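BACKBONE GEOMETRY TOKENS:
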Amino acid sequence: QVQLVESGGGLVQAGGSLRLSCVASGSIFSSAAMGWYRQAPGKQRELVAAITSLGATHHADSVKGRFTISRDKAKKTVYLQMNSLKPEDTAVYYCNVNGDSPYEYDYWGQGTQVTVSS
């Protein structure tokens, strides 16, 4: 069983920075992709950024140039560096690990709140 624990959320003023971390406990396959999603009140959960096992990254248009996803395979940890934060970035941020080998799996963290004040 895999558990994901996020940390690093909090309250920050617009223009500030935060770094989210997500540590996986249990076995993570080397082929796993990891990512960050967010959900604001009254809105659907959306993909913020993702990183493949080979290090290829994808960032949503709304965060390009401001957020950067990275991972440390040895530590089974994925990070999200968030700079130039805006009030519209306010949401609960969730860590995700998924893959399809040797079987399909999809794990979620409990979420960490990020609040950006104007």
Notes: The longest strand covers residues 91-99. The chain is about 0% helix and 55% strand. The chain has a mean pLDDT of 95. The CA atoms of residues 29 and 101 lie 8 Å apart.
